[in-house]
Amino acid sequence: MTSTSAPVSLYGFLTPKAGHADVLRKLLLDLVAPSRGHEGSLQYHIHEQEDGRFFLYEVWRSQEDLNRHNATPLLREFMAELPEHLDGDVEAYFGAMISTYPAASGGGQGN
């Protein structure tokens, strides 16, 4: 697949409910390998903050690739289960990358 659109990034914070950090950590980490294997995945990272929040950082070759990733059964199941483990809403941000991204033509690279 060839795309002329700019890479898109998705990043944000998830705050686990008290007693749910271990479950949420596992759910998030279980997404990493399959998501990195999806077409158009350029970066896919999970970080754990000192305050207990989880920070996600993803870069996709195009909005189409991100949409395709979000439509997978894996992501739909995760999103359905997510609210029971969160304290509050997901703090999420999306945007077109305006700096040059050297791996933009590849898929599943640089993860």
UniProtKB/TrEMBL annotation:
Record keywords, A-Z: Monooxygenase, Oxidoreductase
Span of domain ABM: 8-94
InterPro entries: ABM_dom, Dimeric_a/b-barrel
Gene Ontology molecular-function annotations: monooxygenase activity
Keyword Oxidoreductase on entry: yes
Organism: Actinomadura litoris
Name this protein carries in UniProt: Antibiotic biosynthesis monooxygenase
Pfam family, one: ABM
